[in-house]
Amino acid sequence: MPSPRFRDGSSMLTETQQFMRPRLPKDHRCAGDLCVEAPAISADTTNSLVMEIFAAQKEELVCLAVVENGRPIGLINRNIFLSQMSKPFHREIYDKKSCIAFMDKEPLVVDADMSIEDLSFKTVEYGEKALADGFIVTRDGAFMGLGNGLRLMGVVAAIQAERNRQMMQSIEYASVIQRAMLRASRDALASTLNDAALVWEPRDVVGGDFYHFTAYHDGWFGAIADCTGHGVPGAFMTMIASSSLTQALAQHGPRDPAQLLSAVNRSVKGLLGQVNGVDDTPESDDGLDAAFIWFDSAACTLSFAGANLGLHILAPGAEQFESHAGQRMGVGYVNSDLDYQWPISRIAVAPDSLVFITTDGLIDQVGGPKRISLGKRNVFKAIVEHREQPTAEICSALQRTLAGWQQGQTRRDDVTLFCARLLVTSRNNDE
Question: Predicted confidence band at 133 (pLDDT cuts at 50, 70, 90)?
Answer without folding.
Answer: confident
